[in-house]
């Protein structure tokens, strides 16, 4: 499994991804799922991936090596596409190209062609945007009403986001909330594990602001986990006992 | 969907169930999923159900009207079985009997034979126990290591239980934590909805202690929701901002 979350607030974008991959419980490894493509001052793009690792690695390779534009015939890469909307279409085309090459054979072997990606970033002259791209290559975009998107094992970490994240949440606060959401997921699902990669991009900065790997020795994250646990304990202890009897 | 949770602590047993059923988003209704079978001073048994409503209603009817014991040929009901372990086997037999009558036809119509039940209670002379019975009629039991069992849409409400519930948690505290878990689930999944039925059984009391339906006007539950939200807000606000930069 995997858990990745992207949060798009007025101040900027937060992307968080775990690094655990597994093919069965007895085959666990660490792979980076959060990827950064940056030409400082011109574009900053991050992609988080969930699903079949062979598929997502192929898609990432295609995006940097290039995919031919079906109309112009030109070789495009993630560093040349002029707008974020076109980048989302490009990611979709790369996924469909991998499906064309491997999809049928995978299905013959009962391996599901399963990949979803969070794509966030900004190209000079355009807006900072956040998309979720599906296995079919189609995609949706986060909006002010629903400022976060999740892929992978999303349910355990959703309640805190539902309660606390709005598009007016500050960038640092959004990063904190994303880490709380990741912590809840790691505690409840063995398929999601440390280290955790985080990135933040401030709106119109056209450069990554935070790009950091949180490992088991990370003091801030360990402190956040402890504070959150202690606060939850205090919170339910402070609620008065239920007054119910037999109706 | 459905969300039901049973928590077995040293002091007793908590059972909580929502009441929403749906066959598609445009066909939503309220059905009781928490059922009580009591002969005060002799036995107190509660059952919470998830899955296909036609199946779970048939199973409940069989349990009160009676199923023939395959060995003795006698008609047994949930009020006559002598131990909780035998009650769990009996619930399994009732599920298999419903499968025998309806299972094949349901599968022909692409309806899945899908039912899970939480069974908790005590029969005089035996222990207070909590089981989860599967569609195949087999079952597992909660233990001191894992004192709670969930059926239905269980992921949203699991983190708080993972963090806070142990077998030493008090009965009233366990009820509170179960309600927090239900609140998180209701907020994140439209298929789980009010009213919520709760029951508690104190160990060796052989009678239900709390049996209550929480509706939208329930002051305690509304207060719990507000306090919990406010405490979560305060909790993440109190965590210092992340110190991360570019590695």
Write a structural description.
With 247 residues, chain A is α+β, with helices and mostly antiparallel strands. Chain A has one domain (3-236): Aminohydrolase, N-terminal nucleophile (Ntn) domain (Glutamine Phosphoribosylpyrophosphate, subunit 1, domain 1, 4-Layer Sandwich). Chain A is 34% helix and 30% strand. Chain A has five helices and 14 strands. Chain A has helices spanning 53-65, 84-108, 158-164, 171-188, 219-238; strands spanning 3-8, 12-17, 20-22, 28-30, 34-39, 43-51, 67-68, 75-76, 115-123, 129-133, 139-141, 148-152, 196-202, 208-214. In chain A, strands 12-1-2-13-14 form a five-stranded antiparallel β-sheet, with helices on one face. A five-stranded antiparallel β-sheet of chain A has the order 5-6-9-10-11. In chain A, helix 1 packs across helix 2 (84-108), helix 3 (158-164) packs antiparallel against helix 4 (171-188) and helix 4 (171-188) packs across helix 5. The radius of gyration of chain A is 19 Å and the shape is globular. The model of chain A has no long low-confidence stretch (mean pLDDT 95).
Question: Which short descriptors sum up this protein?
Answer:
proteasome (chains A, B); 34% helix; 247 residues; five-stranded antiparallel beta sheet; 30% strand; globular; peptidase activity (chains A, B); alpha+beta; UCP009120_prtse (chains A, B); homodimer
């Amino acid at each position: 499994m995997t858990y990745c979350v992207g949060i798009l607030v007025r101040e900027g974008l937060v992307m968080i991804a775990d690094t655990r991959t597994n093919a069965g419980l007895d085959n666990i490894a660490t792979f980076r799922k959060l990827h950064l493509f940056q030409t400082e001052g011109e574009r900053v793009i991050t992609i988080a991936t969930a699903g079949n690792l062979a598929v997502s690695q192929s898609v990432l390779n295609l995006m940097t090596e290039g995919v031919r534009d079906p109309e112009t015939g030109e070789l495009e890469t993630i560093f040349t596409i002029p707008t974020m909307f076109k980048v989302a279409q490009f990611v979709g085309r790369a996924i469909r190209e991998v499906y064309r090459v491997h999809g049928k054979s995978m299905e013959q072997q009962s391996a599901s062609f399963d990949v979803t990606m969070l794509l966030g970033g900004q190209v000079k002259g355009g807006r900072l945007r956040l998309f979720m791209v599906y296995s079919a290559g189609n995609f949706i975009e986060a909006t002010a009403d629903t400022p976060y998107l999740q892929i992978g094992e999303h349910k355990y970490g959703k309640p805190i986001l539902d309660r606390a994240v709005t598009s007016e949440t500050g960038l640092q606060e959004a990063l904190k909330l994303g880490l709380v959401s990741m912590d809840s997921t790691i505690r409840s699902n063995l398929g999601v594990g440390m280290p955790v990669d985080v990135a933040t991009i401030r709106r119109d900065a056209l450069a990554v602001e935070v790009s950091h790997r949180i490992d088991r020795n990370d003091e801030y994250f360990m402190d956040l986990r402890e504070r959150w646990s202690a606060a939850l304990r205090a919170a339910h202890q402070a609620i008065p006992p239920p007054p119910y009897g037999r109706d």
